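quick one, two chains, predict together pls
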Amino acid sequence: MVRENLCILPADVAIDDEVVMTDREWVRSAQDGDEEAFAKLIRRHSGGLHRAVARILADDTEAWDVVQMAFLKAWQRLDRYNPRYSFSTWLYRIGTNLAIDLLRSRSSRERTHKAHTEHHLRLVGAGEGAGSRADSSEADRILGQIVGVLTPQQRSAFVLREMQGLDTAEVAEVLGCSPTTVRNHIFQARKALRREMRARFPEYLPASERG
Amino acid sequence: MDCDVFRELLNSYLDESLEEDRRQSFQRHLRECASCRESALSQDPSLLFAAAPEPVVSQTDVEACAVAVTARIRQQRLAHRLQRRRRPWLAAAAAIVIMIAGGLIWKVTVGGIGDSAAPGIEAFAEGDAHTVPPTVEVEMAGEDVRVYQFAAEDDDDTAVYFIVNPAMEL
């Protein structure tokens, strides 16, 4: 069950199950052509999907385009939806695949250009300890600047697991690979991000290691 | 989770070897305890991303997304309906055009009516055993139309077919 759904509801297992049940009812109605039921699914899941895709792409605006495309594709393929999986896992799979395709279609030159133009951001104030001020916008800005060192699969696995709270089995389902591969993607991603952060954001090093 | 347990579990978290419920408790403590977060980040700065709370998504953006997607769905449904209505006319018109074209080809290759067709008729009338007149076949499958014209076996120039729906390629 994807906890990401619960941007509206409190994180609770019983309510998780309830969300899935309602999702299934809405999916069934949507399969019969009920657009309003599908709109309810969009209202419930678009926020969570957007957060994941925006972090994978490091682009907030482009992420909304991908979210819209993902829902359109989901509507067109509703007859292929397998109720064995939660609607959100299926939706994340569509959205993540679209995001990965988009990343692959971007040229490395564009990515380099973007990383350079965004590098002027100064994220941490002098004299403050980095650990006491971690917030989502700061983490997202830093991720946006260094995520280019990861492969599309590593990015997706890291974002879904580490930031969106999906478990390994769910990430494996979304990415269409084994849980072992997911763990390997996350391990490699963490290693690369650690290296980049130490090189580009020395304020996150212990005081004894800073130059 | 207290701070001692958090410190004990740090390496297991980084190795991806924590059980799911322990992992969630670890992440919760990472977000809530500033001193543990600072110490964990100094060990592995990539933990910054696990420590980040969920960004807030504007309800206006969510609503705009729902409106945009449902509008596209309605547009696609309407386009599909219009296409279905138009198709029989398109198929009929295409069939007429193809029949006329087929007739012209028949006239040029084999003969047909009028003086200009005489050599072709003569050739056929003389009992040329392996010369078979071309045929025109119109195949209607639902709303799709597929038309073939077959020339005589020894005539390489006039084998013509038309496909109205490109999805029906041979």
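Residues 3-51 of chain B form one domain.
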